[in-house]
């Protein structure tokens, strides 16, 4: 639905030359409406001019593109390259124009979502890494322009930094003099950086305002780096923290301590406890056996999202999770890579029971769930009436077991998304689990299609056509990885080459 006001704005935006000539007659409170209409129609020239002349003190991209009384459509998943480039050019034009026409004080460029299929007319997306590079380049160009120095606009952004754009982002974040665009980060993602680069750019990014910090994949941190990062910078407003694999490994040069003591982990836990806004924590692929209570126990606020995938949890860890304060507040939980139903059935059952009133997203990939575990799994899931998404790829379940599970899932009223494994019937007899990527891709595609169609039929006959199901064999779509795949590939090849050189050097020393 759209109002008559929005229809009028859309009609004006559809004729760019008329729109540009009419801007002087447009009331200031109608600029946001005209902006959304122009974004919807991908009128880049109109968008640029709107930003250049923006008459309000604030420009908030996410709010302008979201649903409103005038237009219920949500355009935040349109990371349209043409429109976003026009926004940045218009923002640069704004700070370069005459002093009397500058009213803008804050430009919030956050709120855009990256999706697999773009709905904008051009179909060309500008991902988070590309938006970061474009914004950083714009900031640097304006820093060198003497006409822009008289006016300053605070810019809030979601930043994605890799080695490829590191120098440009550092220059944009840390200008030598007052800058026309004062860049501040609300969300920060880092990949393919060394620890010293990460520390440098985070210092400049303003850790005091940061809400989300994602340090992923090819940032090689150990527990010493993590402790240094948290202790030196402090993140009082941080809501979400993601650390890379092996982030809790002991530093190579660290002297061994008496059994049961881990001063680095104790210090990290204390630093986390000082973050009174922290409600989301992801520490997947870190060995935390027997240390979950030490890590999560001191936290002052209950966690809403927790990722402990492949953390080698033991009975004590699972017992703590099932009984801790966090369990009753969890909305997102990932326990992939643990034999939950086989090794910890009572703790797993209790954990889901305590989380049932809040749990929305549950991931149980490669948990060794077999047909014989199905009754326990169904019983554990049945109280989770708020569950919206369930992912359990990589579990050796037969077609008949999946059919029975789907019948049970029909009873979860809010469930909308299910990712299920390729049934083991589709693989050669005796196939081993967990599978590597090569083995995972070698299955009977025709047999899978027949089984998948039958499972969809189970949902349709139960009146649950609102549940979408899929089997993303190689994982779900990740826009950040897709956008930087070439750079990450080069990084991995270089790391492999370095490892081979070190191995060769070690062999020569042995000889």
Task: Describe the model.
- The protein is α/β, with parallel strands linked by helices.
- 42% of the residues lie in helices and 10% in strands.
- The protein contains 21 helices and 13 strands.
- The protein has helices spanning 4-13, 16-22, 31-41, 44-52, 61-65, 81-96, 128-143, 166-173, 195-205, 223-233, 263-273, 292-296, 315-323, 340-343, 345-355, 374-381, 399-409, 437-441, 445-461, 479-483, 485-510; strands spanning 58-60, 106-108, 153-161, 181-190, 212-215, 240-242, 280-282, 305-307, 332-334, 361-363, 389-391, 417-419, 468-470.
- The chain has a 13-stranded parallel β-sheet.
- Helix 12 links the parallel strand 7 (280-282) and strand 8.
- The protein is globular, with a radius of gyration of 26 Å.
Query: Could you give the distance between the termini?
Result: 77 Å
Helix percentage: 40-55%
Helices, by number, come to 21
Determine the strand fraction and express it as a percent band: 5-15%
List the helices and strands and how they pair.
Elements: H1 4-13, H2 16-22, H3 31-41, H4 44-52, E1 58-60, H5 61-65, H6 81-96, E2 106-108, H7 128-143, E3 153-161, H8 166-173, E4 181-190, H9 195-205, E5 212-215, H10 223-233, E6 240-242, H11 263-273, E7 280-282, H12 292-296, E8 305-307, H13 315-323, E9 332-334, H14 340-343, H15 345-355, E10 361-363, H16 374-381, E11 389-391, H17 399-409, E12 417-419, H18 437-441, H19 445-461, E13 468-470, H20 479-483, H21 485-510
Parallel strand pairs: 1-2, 2-3, 3-4, 4-5, 5-6, 6-7, 7-8, 8-9, 9-10, 10-11, 11-12, 12-13
């Amino acid at each position: 639905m759209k109002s008559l006001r929005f229809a009028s704005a859309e009609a004006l935006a559809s004729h760019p030359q008329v729109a540009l000539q009419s801007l002087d007659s447009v009331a200031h409170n109608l600029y946001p409406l005209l902006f959304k209409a122009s974004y919807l129609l991908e009128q880049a020239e109109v968008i640029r001019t709107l930003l250049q002349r923006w008459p309000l003190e604030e420009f908030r991209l996410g709010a302008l593109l979201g649903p409103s009384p005038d237009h219920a459509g949500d355009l935040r998943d349109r990371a349209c390259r043409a429109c976003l480039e026009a926004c940045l050019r218009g923002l640069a034009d704004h700070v370069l124009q005459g002093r009397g026409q500058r009213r803008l004080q804050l430009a919030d460029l956050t709120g855009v979502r990256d999706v697999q299929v773009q709905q904008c007319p051009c179909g060309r997306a500008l991902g988070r890494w590309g938006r970061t590079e474009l914004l950083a380049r714009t900031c640097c160009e304006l820093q060198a322009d003497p006409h822009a120095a008289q006016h300053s606009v605070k810019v809030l952004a979601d930043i994605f930094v890799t080695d490829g754009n590191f120098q440009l982002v550092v220059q944009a974040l840390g200008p030598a003099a007052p800058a026309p665009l004062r860049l501040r980060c609300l969300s920060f993602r880092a990949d393919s950086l060394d620890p010293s680069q990460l520390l440098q750019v985070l210092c400049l990014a303003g850790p005091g305002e940061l809400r989300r910090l994602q340090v992923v994949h090819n940032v090689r941190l150990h527990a010493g780096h993590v402790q240094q990062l948290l202790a030196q910078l402090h993140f009082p407003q941080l809501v979400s923290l993601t650390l890379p694999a092996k982030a809790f490994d002991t530093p190579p040069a660290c002297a061994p301590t008496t059994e049961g003591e881990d001063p680095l982990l104790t210090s990290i836990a204390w630093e986390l406890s000082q973050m009174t806004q922290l409600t989301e924590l992801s520490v997947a692929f870190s060995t935390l056996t027997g240390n979950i209570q030490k890590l999560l126990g001191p936290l002052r606020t209950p966690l809403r999202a927790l990722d402990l995938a492949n953390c080698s949890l033991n009975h004590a860890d699972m017992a703590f999770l099932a009984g801790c304060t966090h369990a009753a507040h969890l909305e997102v939980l990932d326990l992939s890579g643990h034999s939950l139903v086989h090794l910890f059935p009572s703790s797993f059952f209790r954990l889901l029971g305590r989380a049932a009133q809040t749990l929305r997203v549950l991931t149980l990939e490669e948990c060794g769930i077999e047909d014989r575990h199905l009754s326990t799994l169904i019983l554990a899931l049945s109280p989770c009436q708020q569950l919206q998404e369930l992912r359990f790829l990589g579990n050796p379940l037969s077609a008949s077991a999946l059919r029975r599970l789907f019948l049970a899932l029909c009873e979860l009223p809010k469930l909308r998304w299910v990712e299920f494994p390729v049934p083991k019937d589709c693989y050669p007899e005796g196939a081993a689990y967990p599978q590597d990527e090569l083995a995972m891709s070698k299955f009977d595609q025709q047999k899978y299609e027949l089984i998948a169609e039958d499972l969809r039929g189970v949902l349709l006959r139960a009146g649950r056509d609102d549940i979408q199901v899929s089997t993303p064999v190689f994982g779900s779509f990740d826009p950040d990885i897709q956008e930087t795949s070439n750079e990450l590939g080069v990084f991995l090849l270089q790391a492999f080459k370095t490892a081979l050189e070190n191995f060769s050097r070690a062999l020569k020393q042995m000889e």
